[in-house]
Every structure is written in C-alpha cells, then in structure tokens.
Amino acid sequence: MLLYAVADIHGKPEKLSLIKKNIREHKPDMLVVAGDITNYLHPARTIEIMKGMPIPVLAVRGNSDFPMVETLISESSTISSLHLQKFFSEGITFTGIGGTIPLPFRSKVSFREKRIVEKMVSKLEQHSVIVVHPPPFGVLDRVFGRFHAGSRILYAMIIQHQPVLCICGHIHEDVGSGFIGKTLIVNCSIGKTGAGALIKFNSRKKPSVIFLED
Q: What's the total number of domains in the chain?
C-alpha cells in the first residue's frame, strides 16, 4: 500500500492543486490528511474539493478546522474521519484523533487529552497507524528550530503502545521522519514549502517514507 500523507493545507487552492498533481504522478492508494484541512473560512468549499480527490481520503481535524468540518466529512462518501474510529485496509488498522489546542511551547489534542487518547488506544490493533494533528513531544515538533511544542501525552502513549506509524503535522517548520522506539513518526506538513510524504507500507514490512518537494 502506498499512502500519500499531507497536513496543513489551510484551504489554499495552490496546495489542493499540488496534492492532485502528486496523486496523478505517484498514484498512491490512499490520501491521509493529518489536520488543518481548512482555514476557518468557507470550510464547505475546501471539503467539496477534497471529496473530488481520485482516491479514498482518511482525515482528522486540526486546530484551524471548526467542528463543523467533522460534519461535512461525515456527509461524504469519499472521505472517512479517523477521529476515534477504525478504518481497515490490507490488514492495517487506521485510527486517530481530530483537533488540536495550541499552547505556548506545547500542544494538546483536546482539553481532556488523556481521556481522548485512552479512547484511541482502545482502537489499536497489531498493525496500527495513528493519525493526529500535533506531533508527539520531542520529535519533529520544534518551533523556530528550538522549542519543542508537541503533545506529551501522545508521546507517552506511543512509548507504551508502539503503533507502527504515526502521521502528524501542525509544526510547519519541522517536516521529516523519526522514531520513538519502533514507531515511525512522519510530520508531513505542507504548510511552508513541503509537498507531503509517500509512505510505502504493508502489514508484513516496516514502513518507508519519501518526502516530496513543492
């Protein structure tokens, strides 16, 4: 399975066009969007474009996506919300958490973060991919290249449960990949000059990642 992972579209037409171009060129099986799909204004317009993507779309909300984005996604037959849900494909379980609360030098997925993360943990299987908007604390979460701003509870969850892959975004300036134990972390933000990441993955091999250029 070839995943095309992006985050931080912010409703920008040029970013949506870039995603379509990369889908045509690289022919991934699935598009995974790790939040900040829209930019507060006119979310229905952006979601309508996302509905027209030529491959299935899995998504979670970010901090710039109002709760109504969840409703718009739920009304679509081509976009699946991963917020505390399971999605199965080729022996792999996808799940996630929608939303983010940016705080100075840290991020939380919600006000009741620990409880929400525990609910996501209940969805994990042997071969699981989690999709969240903020990175885990200390990994691909540096603001201004210096200050870590990720989620501490997310980091603790990954340490304990070791999902195979965590796809995230939010921190535009720290795109890349890294590991927490055996878990591959991919910050696939396209908010600055990124174009997303291609992740080759199946239930029998470790995932590998290539970052695309804008």
A: 1
**Which of these ranges, 148-162, 170-184, 199-213, has the smallest mean pLDDT?**
199-213
For residue 14, what are its two tokens?
């040029």
Question: Is the pTM above the cut of 0.85?
Answer: yes
> Which residue, 174, 184, 188, is CA-closest to 208?
184
Are the beta carbons of 20 and 46 closer than 8 angstroms? no
Determine the Cα–Cα distance for residues 61 and 197; give it in Å rounded to an integer.
18
Contact by Cβ (8 Å): 36, 8: yes
How many CB atoms lie under 10 A from the CB of residue 79? 20
> What is the extent of the structural domain holding 123?
2-213
In tens, the pLDDT along 15-34 reads: 999 999 999 999 999 999 99
Pull the structure tokens for residue 51: 């509905």
DSSP strand E in 22-175: where?
Answer: 30-34, 57-60, 79-81, 87-89, 92-96, 101-103, 106-108, 128-131, 142-143, 147-148, 165-168
Report the C-alpha gap between 200 and 165 in whole angstroms.
11
CATH assignment of the domain containing 38: 3.60.21.10
Residue 198 backbone phi and psi in degrees, to 5: -100, 125
In sequence order, what E strands does the chain have? 2-6, 30-34, 57-60, 79-81, 87-89, 92-96, 101-103, 106-108, 128-131, 142-143, 147-148, 165-168, 176-180, 183-187, 194-200, 208-213
- Distance from C-alpha of 112 to C-alpha of 109, rounded to nearest angstrom: 8
pLDDT tier at 180, thresholds 50, 70, 90: very high
